[in-house]
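Data card: per-record layout.
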Amino acid sequence: FRLALIQLHVSAVKSDNLQRACGLVREASAKGAKLVALPECFNSPYGTQYFKEYAEKIPGESTQKLSEVAKECSIYLIGGSIPEEDGGKLYNTCPVFGPDGALLAKHRKVHLFDINVPGKIQFKESETLSPGNTLSMFDTPYCKVGLGICYDMRFAEMAQIYGQKGCQLLIYPGAFNMTTGPAHWELLQRGRAVDNQLYVATISPARDEKASYVAWGHSTVVNPWGEVIAKAGAEETVVYTDIDLKKLAEIRQQIPILSQKRCDLYGVEMKK
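The structure for this 272-residue chain is written out next.
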């Protein structure tokens, strides 16, 4: 099946972001994509100073438009992420819609991005956001998909659990920056893919040098052998790739790590 990653240029005008995103979703569908994914914070600038201003409830304006375009195009739509308000708390949330427009999953970013690299970048999502408390998966006729958002990708246990639960594709909307992007963006994706013998797709906003937080870009798809099979540059674009589950099965047969794990010695489990 064909996967499309929409590396969107995100502006400060929410209505423009929504209109542009939906237009690119339609374009991707017309080119045969069955799963289409948007980037982290696709409807608002990324930054703790913006989350409250742009936050919505789910359902709300942005998710209603995503639901409508998923149904119109009869696709599975991974809605990147939006700032979500619920019960007086803010979350960084990825909604997923099916071909009938129904909400299939809602992943709230589990690991909040609180880092300090002296002289390069300091950022603290927990100043405004609350963490999600569940792992999120959804089924399609093609395969089972596991969800994470950006910083979630650094936590190998989460990806391992998704693999144990039968996921063959992991999708991470993310916005690595100009420090962490060149260092770890591709490395982490290849690690998660080869460790668990599955496909990993990451979707970044396009790079905007004028933004307060500059995203690395380079939306990427990695196959279960750890090879980069599709990759964007820094500009707004749509990345297409065909996900070959037969290849995944062949790799798992050739190097059967899943059946050769020493579960008598170690294990990773989901607690909720």
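Known properties of this structure: The CA atoms of residues 39 and 204 lie 5 Å apart. The first helix runs from residue 14 to 30.

See the next section for split statistics.
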